[in-house]
Predict the 3D structure of the following.
Amino acid sequence: MNREELIKKWLDHNLNTEEQIAFEQLEDYSQLIKMDSTLKDFKAPDFITEASYKTLQPQLKSKTTKTDTWLKPLFKIAAILMIGLSVYYYTTTLDTEIHTKIAEQSIIKLPDASSVNLNANSTVIFNESNWNKTRAVKLKGEAFFKVAKGQKFDVITNYGTVSVLGTQFNVKQRGSYFEVTCFEGLVSVAHNGKTVKLKPGNSFKVIDGKQITEGKENILQPLWLEGESSFKSVPLKYVITELENQYKESITTENIDTSRLFTGSFTHNNLDLALKSITIPLNLSYSKSGKSILLKRE
Amino acid sequence: MSQPLHDNICESQLFERLYKKHAKNLHNFLYYKFGEHLNPQDKVQEAFIKLWQNCSKVAPPKAKSFLFTTANNLMLNAVSHQKVVLRYNEKPQKRTTNETPLFVLEEKEYHIKLQKAISNLTEAQRVAFLMNRAEGKRFKEIAELLGISVKGVEKRIYGALKRLREEIDEL
């Protein structure tokens, strides 16, 4: 082993015993050792890791808010969840409102097996989350109800409340016209503090504050479900409003007594036919101009 | 293929471990390379702060080279090519000494010679050499720290030794 290799091994602290002896035999051994021991004095000043980390730490802490990157998305998720939950809670406790436009009908399934057929230009409002406690529907316009057996079922209108225990009935409330027709079961109508019980086929009518109870309709469901509106001794003005509900045209009258009673029906699918079925029995004539229709005496 | 446990070092515990592993070596590296007057301790702290600020971009295996490069650059920014003077530690004064005044004087002279010779080494030589002689590090450890081969380390250290010997004999 030559000198250079020995010195290199010594430098690498890698001498074995034999090599150590050989190394000590080198002529400049003492010089090397002298230099080596002196070099130890050139060691870097002690760096105390623990202590210097402590001094560094405060400077890192100021950044920790920045570096807690997992917190930010967590807050975002929490916020979204909160919003979602509150929207969910709000919408579920909110009343459900369903509105039909002119010439539009709709079938609504209520939270139980009950269903509502909503006639044109009508609105029902009910509360889904509260349904198990109170079965109540607010109605504006006309609707036919098929009520599942169960607790009391209320239909609330501006003119009175209709209560049943499970049956089929039609409620119509247009302006100051209020009509309830029972098709099955027993229906009670509360109006002006009085309660009237209706048997199948009977109907209860209030027109302009006058109360009329009449019977016997031998049909299973209201005619409007089949695309026809039928009237029995109803003032003409209510017939016209109903016509306006079923067709998009607006109707004006000229020199006509709109309180005249009308008995009959009109279809929802054919305006001319509908107009004829109203005007001919009453000796009226009609003229169409664009979207408006004028009714007058013949 | 195994996925590395962390893809960044933003976690303070991991960061602390990195600090404990590298801070001392980094400090000594800076000290041997640039000397003392540029305050290597401060540069170490600065480099670690930079690492923390960029913690999301640095993967753990890259942290060491990031630190060394950053600290080195910080030093270079501060350095204005001054000669590196390493202060040797004064030996604790012995109360009772049976050394002759001549010996003490010689000893002192030798120290000064060596100090001069060390400052004449190249940076690369000085860093490797002092890590080896003063710290007692093996070639392999130094090679890892500096990111060079063991052979390269050997060459630097042996070259440094040779040069020191020559200079001291000359003086």
Remarks:
- Residues 71-93 of chain A form the longest helix (23 residues).
- Helices of chain A lie at 3-11, 17-24, 29-39, 49-67, 71-93, 236-246, 271-279.
